[in-house]
Amino acid sequence: MDGAARDAALFPMGQGTGLDRPHTGKWKAQKGKWEIALKAPDTGTVRKGTFSIYLSAYLSPPISPFHAAFLARSHALSLRESTRGYAMTGRTRRLFRRKSKTKDEKPYSRSSSTTNTSTSEAVIDTPSDTSSASDSSSLNMPSHTKGDTSVNGITNGMASAKLNGNSSRQHRTMADKRKQSSPMMPPFMVSAPGKVIVFGEHAVVHGKAAIAAAISLRSYLLVTALSKSKRTISLRFPDINLSHTWDIDDLPWSTFSHPSKKKSYYDLVTELDPDLVAAMKPHLANVSEELPEDVRRVHQNTASAFLYLLLSLGSQSFPGCLYTLRSTIPIGAGLGSSASVSVCLAAALLLQIRTLSGPHPDQPSEEARLQVERINRWAFVGEMCIHGNPSGVDNTVATQGKAVVFQRHDYSKPPTVKPLWNFPELPLLLVDTKQAKSTAAEVAKVGALKKAHPHITESILNAIDKVTEGAAALIGYEDFDSTEESSLEELGKLMTINHGLLVALGVSHPRLERIRELVDHEGIGWTKLTGAGGGGCAITLLKPGISHERLQRLEDTFDREGFKKFETTLGCDGVGVLWPAVLKNGIEDDQGGEEIDQDKFLNADGIEGVEELVGVQGESGDREAWKFWRVES
Question: Has 20 been annotated as catalytic?
């Protein structure tokens, strides 16, 4: 077996095999399908067949060993190499049975030796139209070969084949009851974090540096492929009551694919093409047309980001899909919710067009860096559709996670962004004042103060810049230990100083000061406002070892006074992938995991329900199936 075939043998496999006992055999990829001949150790029966790649919509072989291993792990398929081939474990067979079983089929019995590995002879052969199975049941595998065509176990032809001892006529009767076509891609999920400004608010508007960091409040996108006969694309975002469907063949593909307009996935797009925006307008006009203008504008901006990315990266042959978004990030609170959504959409589409290999534990840092940058570039395009002229900071943090130092000397140019890859994960309490704010009004307030008192205001802004510089240096020290109170205290003092300087600029609010007062009274951490101020949110860096009683007492006070609190983590991972959408939630079924489908995802109750079902940092079960692109410093 050559290297490509060996790598391909680790690739997640297809549906409808119906294996009920250990088998050995060898696999190889050829022209987008698998060729297989398996030999049962107990009966000696050789089963032959071909079937299409289950994840063919994601990536076709040959693939790298690193990528293959990641996909195998993420799909929860346990393949173990024997001395003469590849053997499947019981978990793999159970997954196969679940995918292939219909209401007319009886469950297969489970052999007591499901985890044994046999070294019986493995036969490699290409099935022909005349090949037939022995007296045991034939292996029913979806095929793309001429004459014997099968999709997810529905076979056309193979007149001599039998299924579980039944005739092909019975097989066709069962097949007629199934769907005429089924998706070749499993549901998968993408997630990206929100962000907070930790240091440097307002100073950054005047050319100084600021630090923004990812938080563990996240957006989640579930991508579900439709059957081949369904030629529609749907976007659902129930948290903002957005739901819209487009006919794929009606979209302006010809405009976006014109040689003068077409963009490749690796291109840097720094501005929207007016002709492409104009071509999309008729397809956005009826989005939420019955809703009030302010709501409709939000919906159409979100839909425009999705369509622009889809039409730029996809093609008219794109499969029908359902894209469902849920977010645990408070919307409109200055926490980067729109950037998080843009990152999810960009990453999902890049995965679907096979330009990302997906994160995996053995991925070289430079490869991860390249793929993170690719996602970030297209997420910025989505942000331009939503905001017009974004800074690019929010989508950068949402893509790569951790934290960044950013500075903008010239507003006609993008800001300078320096990643802080070694930024530690820190416990954070985020509190929403529920006080409406206006970023423009607060920025104008500081501008007026600077005009009236230029030297004093400039001194305050310079002091904020020094605080930001000191914080970046502190975190970069080798002896900085995020678990030690002494290290956190140094960082916390800088947060307190930063807040005091923002108060001097006049951008705080009584509700923000009340949060700081309550936190100081309990002595649990260091608090500052985040963002523009004038309302919005405050963040508290929590001290280690805080008792549950003290924290609960503070949270009860917040509830009584109308604040909304979120316990979160600062400096968390960036964009992540769950492929397929199966998690061990502590409530998994007997197949070893809970499959996240549309109904479960849509019916998850609020932030807590979404986190419990799919959350990267859910409190129950094993969330290691989530994989992230990680770049070393």
Answer: no
- Residue 463 above 70 pLDDT? yes
d(CA 48, CA 334): 58
The span from the CA of 462 to the CA of 505, in Å, is 12
User: Read out DSSP for 463-499?
Assistant: HHHHHHHHHHHHHHSTT--TTSHHHHHHHHHHHHHHH
Q: Give phi and psi for 115, each to the nearest 5.
A: -105, 5
Distance between CA atoms of 466 and 383, rounded to whole angstroms?
Answer: 30
Which residues, at least 6 apart from 313, have a Cβ–Cβ distance to it below 8 Å? 265, 349, 350, 353, 378
Q: What does the buried/exposed string (b/e) look like for 32-67 if buried means 16 or more CB atoms within 10 Å of the residue's CB?
A: ebbbbbbbbbeeebbbbbbbbbbbbbbbbbbbbebb
Task: Please tell me which residue, 104 or 381, carries the higher pLDDT value.
Answer: 381
Taking a C-beta distance cutoff of 8 angstroms, is the pair 484, 417 a contact? no
* 253-300 tens-digit pLDDT: 988 888 887 877 777 787 888 999 999 999 999 999 899 998 999 999
Q: What pLDDT shows up at residue 262?
A: 80
Q: Looking up tokens 């302010």, which residue turns up? A: 294
CA 37/CA 123 separation, integer angstroms: 6
Own/partner long-range contacts of 416-420 (Cβ < 8 Å, ≥24 apart): 417/392, 417/393, 419/631, 419/633, 420/211, 420/213, 420/472, 420/475, 420/476, 420/633
Q: What integer pLDDT is reported at residue 203 of this predicted model? A: 93
CA 147 – CA 155 distance, rounded (Å)? 10
Which amino acid is present at 304? S
Neighbouring-strand partners of residue 347? none
- Cα angle 392, 398, 401 (rounded to 5 degrees) comes to 120
Tell me if 425 sits within 8 A of 544, measured CB to CB.
no
Query: 357-375: per-residue pLDDT in tens?
Result: 778 878 888 888 899 999 9
Which pTM value belongs to this model? 0.70
The pLDDT value recorded for residue 622 is 56
Options 7, 20, 148, 394, the catalytic residue: 394
pLDDT in tens, 171-191: 434 434 434 444 457 889 999
Structural domains for the chain: 3-176 (no CATH), 188-400 (3.30.230.10)
Residue 224 CA neighbour count, 13 Å, CB half:
19
